[in-house]
Here is the input.
Amino acid sequence: MPKSTADEVIVPRIRRLAIVPPAATPPDRGESLPVRSLHLNEAPFPPAPAVIAAMQQAAAGLNRYPDHDGAELIAELARRTGAPAETIVIGSGSNELLYASADIALDPGDEAVAPVPGFPTYAKTISLRGATHVGAPVRADGVVDVAATLAAVTDRTRLVFVATPHNPTGGLMGAGEIEHLVRALPDHLLLHFDEAYYEFGRHAGAAESLPLIARRRGPWIVTRSFSKAYGLAGARVGYGITSDRALADAYRKIRVNFSVNAVALAAARTALGETDHLARLLDHTAAERQRLSRGLAELGLKPLPSAANFVSVLTPAPARLAAALAERNVFVLPFPWPGTEGALRITIGSQADTDAVLNGLRDALASR
Ligand SMILES: Cc1ncc(COP(=O)(O)O)c(C=O)c1O
Here is the structure.
């Protein structure tokens, strides 16, 4: 590329970054093969009717800026979680809070620990700050490895990302593992405990993590999302519960003004009350996850145990399998897993989605 005058102003750590947009889903043009979006861990069903009605009502007032603080949503989250409202922060998806943690905790030259494989935003936020990403290999069963995470921490570590259920593997940390992590991590760093798949984990039997994490003396944030179990990925709302008011204020200081729009606020508030809708989604996900896992095993693949709304399998040539599925308009995510041949992550969709994945994989494996 010819040299651009912009090169003069773009700082080297940004110039070095690659453009990595999130995966896209092609539009469904009503062709004979429907588009099946199983690569973004979205919910397969639309939001509850009451949520759609609340969004429509909020849309009628969009000439006004939203409530920047999201006071009503935060009051409801405080009531449900038992955390003081002053310690709760919101963001445009929990993604905004991942970026904020890196902004708050990292200076250039610092170190941050994040699992490998892991949610790509961790590495991106760390490099955006000019800090060093120290990878902590995830265990072979797809669960965050507490020992590897602790071993990766040094005096220069200022931030540690941990996720449970973990993405892209689905592994769930046990209460004892969380306790061990919380006890053994030094106080001089920020623990960002990412629970984007919290509701699925609880449904699968996970212990409530907040009381365990609250035992930590050093700073921590637990983030959760409305994108997954609440089916609001397109609305972009997430929240964080922090160790104390001073840390929450740091997130408030750097938040982009009005980053959570009024339609999203109305959607999130209403979705919290739609408990039957949530329960149906969670029951459906667990049943289809079991059916998909069994079907994958019958094909000779080895699905990892998952407590999330997706199942991953280690497999040679995951990109080839994903391409074979994409030819049938079924989109899944191949991902590299250092030390293995790679893996494929498949989001739990409708029953028809599960059938389409299993049929597509059966044919692709037979034509090897
Ligand atoms: C582990 C993990 N954390 C955070 C997010 C961000 O979700 P959102 O910004 O939609 O809340 C995702 C989304 O896929 C995720 O998988």
About this structure: The first helix runs from residue 12 to 15. The CA atoms of residues 170 and 344 lie 12 Å apart.
